[in-house]
Amino acid sequence: MDKVKKRSVDRASQYMLKRAEEEHIPTAWDRLEAMQPQCGFGQLGLCCRNCNMGPCRIDPFTEEEQTGVCGASRDTIVARNFIRMIAAGAAAHSDHGRDITHALWLAAQGKADAYGIKDEEKLEALACEYEVKVDGRSKEEIAEELAEKIFADFGRQHGELRMPLRAPEKRIKLWRELGIMPRGVDREIVEAMHRTHIGVDTDYKNVLMHGFRTALSDGWGGSMIATELSDILFKTPRPIPARVNLGTLSPEEVNVVVHGHEPTLSDVVVDAVRDPEIVELAREKGAKGVNLVGMCCTANEILMRHGIPVAGNFLQQELAILTGAVDLMMVDVQCIMPALSSVASSFHTKLVTTSPKNKAPGVTHIEFREEEAYEIAKKIIKMAIENFPNRNGNEIRIPDENQELVAGFTAENIYNFLGGTYRATYRPLNDAIVQGRLRGLAGVVGCNNPKIKHNFGHIEMAKELIKNDVLVVVTGCSAIADAEAGLLTPEAAFKYAGKGLQEVCEAVGIPPILHVGSCVDNSRILIALTNVVNEGGLGEDISDLPVAGAAPEWMSEKAVSIGCYFVASGVFTVLGSPFPILGSKNVTSFLCDEVEDILGAKFAFEADPVKAAHLMIEHMDRKRKALKLKPLMYQ
Amino acid sequence: MKRVFVDLERCLGCHSCMIACAVEHSLSKELFKAIQETPLPKPRIEVRTTEKGDSFPLQCRHCEEPYCIDACIAGAIRKDPETGLVLSDEKKCVGCWMCVMVCPFGVIRPSLVPDKREKVAIRCDLCQDRETPACVEACPTGALFFGEAEEFKKAAGKEGGKKNALLNSG
């Protein structure tokens, strides 16, 4: 039991890990152990495989000026490797955004029946931003032209992206002066690959600044597009109660897990499981119904909009199958462990890939097409129902954990909450900070990583922050971690929050930690921060605000991009484990120190989540002092 | 005595053994901290390349009749009669580099002592504080083997005999 307690703080996960151990089914934790010790060059970013004169690796234990065959210094190599991570992360988010745009484009032309325009208000607002004529046109006409214009942002060759213009004026001016205002979404990613090709950009600072521009094309581009268009297509979330953890799997119903990231499939599945034909088929096969649950960010998408339960976060994907109760897991893209197929082979679980971008050897592939979304969703659910009788009753072990939560917060509905429906405004939020009822705001986001005890980093950091009157917003796997710990309930404010934050939560009836969505929805945080700046009284730029960001358990390249667009937007950001950059003192000191003079924010690395929370708190206090704000009400 | 043997077929030349060795002989014994120490810790194992281009790691062979002991003017090197290890006393070493010059394998290297900033000759000590030397544990392909010569021969034999070369001067 000690071993499983070291691996996760979540009891449901511990229960399943125990089973994995008993039945000798390896999980990510075992594979991490088998991988030890991991390559030192890789951890330090000192290995370059960008050309065939190499691979080259720089000795971290020599004082000599060692270089690669081409002459690239350790600084150049580390910086190049780092921005390739940003490029990959930005690519993942942005390609997701492109897929949503595609769905909107098809829906607008009546080519994809499963989709419609669910938020006309947002459609019109966005259309105005993109200079699409609204008056006298149908919502479909508007949506089609808007989709075309947004497509053009991906391949833009001249000028600037549209959405970064939403940032505070001072920030836009800074980006322009520094030459890092993002142009085309695809262009920045392509340029990152070009610059890091053999014999191109050698100046590590120049490489890194383009890395920031690439990240901005994600946060204020691809990701923001994904968020906004998902709201238009699938409706803008509103606060909604739901349940979380592996206990949401049902012993009596057909369990379908949707895992991955894009809502284009998962949102349609939500409708399909309620189809009378499906319900009847499930009963015929001896099930009480169909129980749809989500995993990772696609879970967050349908949780935010429909209150669909969440089975777990990144490190729980294998554990869900280990319950023996998953009849089918359908996956789309990103963070789908290739190991799923081998875990599934130990049980009756059917694994189905759906994206042309993600197939796996030996795994059933049912390709998803927007034009036939509903039929395809039904086909997959039928497959799950057909698989229900193959369950082995003796094999089913579902943990009890099934926690309540409230999700569905957005940059828009914070207006209504804090300002009241009649006078929607950020004023009360700003006032709470100005008066010292709230210390500041923090975004705690990112992945799970077996190198850090599962959920420990997220939960401990969030608790420490709210204890110190910091209002916390969360996304992605971090949000699911906090939800599993019961932190996403209004009651949590009384149990864990400082007095000032408690008062705010009590007055408006919100949890002390607000779930604002999936990992592309980190863009909601950028918008919320901009709204705080625009409301006035807290400086002129995001970098003036008493705010900070963190990714305590990060592992993916997307997290690298997110971290970089937060810093480039002026938000001090703490990571639970360092970026693979420590092999270069210059790159490390640039990102963790010097860049603050350029962008008004920097990175810090801190493994202890409570210490990391205090780095954030100290930062907020410095910003409060600079703004000459009142001392905190309750110190 | 137990020694480190090398399976030549398996070495990919990744230098992981060198990193692990330097970290093990650092003050902090953690990679991220070790690379920030002054002076930098140094590995006592080195990956070399044969004329054919094959790579192999090499460290002190702990010879039966070590030339380095005879060459040492400071009497800093001794052979432990029990373990058979050839050990340098870094406190006694005066940094004359005679041992470096006479070593037929070139596996003794001049260095600074991490905590003292003095010039001393350093060599593999088979990680006295550990059960298995750090390099052996770090090798991702299992090219390094720690044990008695007979054990290695047996292990090598199982995997096809001739393919595996025994690197042992002892």
Describe the structure.
The complex is a heterodimer of chains A (635) and B (170). In chain A, a hairpin with a 7-residue loop joins strand 1 (47-48) and strand 2 (56-57). In chain A, the strands form four sheets. Chain A has a six-stranded parallel sheet. Chain A has a six-stranded parallel sheet with strand order 13-12-11-14-15-16, sandwiched between helices. In chain A, 49% of the residues lie in helices and 10% in strands. Chain A is globular and about 65 Å long. By secondary structure, chain A is an alpha/beta fold. The longest helix of chain A is centred in the first third of the chain and has 35 residues, at 74-108. Chain A folds into four domains: 2-57, no CATH class; 74-234, Substrate Binding Domain Of Dnak, Chain:A, Domain 2, CATH 1.20.1270; 246-395, Rossmann fold; 407-626, 3-Layer(aba) Sandwich (Rossmann fold), CATH 3.40.50.2030. By secondary structure, chain B is α+β, with helices and mostly antiparallel strands. Chain B has two domains: 1-59 and 124-170, Alpha-Beta Plaits, CATH 3.30.70; 60-123, Alpha-Beta Plaits (2-Layer Sandwich). Chain B has helices at 16-24, 31-34, 67-71, 98-102, 134-138, 149-158, and strands spanning 3-6, 46-49, 55-58, 77-79, 86-88, 109-112, 119-122, 144-147. In chain B, the strands form four sheets. Chain B has a two-stranded antiparallel sheet. A two-stranded antiparallel ribbon of chain B has the order 2-3. In chain B, strands 4-5 form a two-stranded antiparallel sheet. In chain B, strand 4 (77-79) and strand 5 form a beta hairpin. The longest helix of chain B is centred in the C-terminal third of the chain and has 10 residues, at 149-158. In chain B, 38% of the residues are buried. The chains are: A alpha/beta (635), B alpha+beta (170). Chains A and B meet through helix 4 of A and helix 1 and helix 2 of B. Chain B: This is 4Fe-4S ferredoxin.
